[in-house]
Amino acid sequence: MNEVEVIRSGALGGVAHGFLGRRGGVSTGIHAGLNVGIGSDDEPDAVTKNRARAVEAVLPGANLVTVFQIHSADVVAVTAPPAERPRGDALVTDRPGLLLGILTADCAPVLFVDAAAGVIGAAHAGWKGAIGGVTDATIAAMETLGAKRERIAAAVGPCIARASYEVDDGFLANFATDDPANERFFAPGKPGHHQFDLEAYVVARLAAAGLTRIEALGLDTYADEDRFFSFRRATHRGEPGYGRQISLIGLEG
């Protein structure tokens, strides 16, 4: 069995973390690899085993905490493993032994740490959550636990890249209405369409919020089928389902 691939960010320093893809899992078929999506139509036993493998690859023995993601800016502060997944799109904690997990399949996963304060965060930034302020809300929630934004480092993991993310005029209009400067994140496409740079937009939001240590990994989930699941790729192929990868961060006890 292949080992789980753990992609790390230098910006996050020594905190236990990893952006995982599809390598190293037990799922087969269209979900082949490390599919951790409870909501997918993969075999539940395979998903459970994949989640266990993900935890062991990043912070062995930790309690995995994930959310029921709803493309919002809602942040959940966790102090203990919840009985069931809370609804939201970001997690923060200052408690060792909790491994915060965000699932993606083209959306941008963002991991945060203030090492001096011992506070971490993880956010799911699809386009709706990103423009809605999920990263800003995560930073604010970390501050309530004692973090200081001038110390917070953030890393943006594998997500769909501009070359792969075609959108229409209405999509661009949403962003331009929110802030005319957002047009810089769109490149010309075929008539009536544009190529959106989600990663650059998320990085800009992080910088505007006052963060100075930001790393973007520049990995395209759509284009790199061997390493990552992609909702849009599966949709373009007419496949009946798709896998989800996980990004993790935790404090050692």
Task: Write a concise synopsis of the structure shown.
This protein has 253 residues and is an alpha+beta fold.
Structure description:
The relative contact order is 0.21. This protein has a single domain, classed as CNF1/YfiH-like putative cysteine hydrolases (4-Layer Sandwich). It has a six-stranded mixed beta sheet with strand order 4-5-8-7-9-13. Strands 1-2-14-6-3 form a five-stranded mixed beta sheet, covered by helices on one side. A hairpin with a 4-residue loop joins strand 7 and strand 8. By secondary structure, it is an alpha+beta fold. The chain has helices spanning 44-58, 127-132, 134-144, 169-178, 198-208, 231-237; strands at 6-7, 16-20, 63-66, 75-77, 90-93, 98-104, 108-114, 119-125, 153-156, 166-168, 186-188, 193-196, 213-216, 245-250. Helix content is 24%, strand content 25%.
Question: CATH architecture, please?
Answer: 4-Layer Sandwich
Going by helix content, strand content and strand pairing, the class is: alpha+beta
The largest β sheet comes out as: 6 strands, mixed
Query: What is the assigned CATH homologous superfamily?
Result: CNF1/YfiH-like putative cysteine hydrolases
Instruction: Give the mean pLDDT.
Output: 97
| Assigned CATH class | Alpha Beta
**Count of alpha/pi helices:** 6
Question: Structurally, how many domains make up the residues?
Answer: 1
Shape: globular
User: What order do the SSEs take from the amino end to the carboxyl end, as H and E?
Assistant: EEHEEEEEEHHEEHEEHEHE
CATH topology: CNF1/YfiH-like putative cysteine hydrolases
What is the β-strand count? Answer: 14
First-to-last CA distance: 29 Å
Helix content: 10-25%
Poorly predicted regions are none
Kindly report the spatial arrangement of strands forming the biggest sheet. Answer: 4-5-8-7-9-13
The Cα radius of gyration reads: 17 Å
Strand proportion = 15-25%
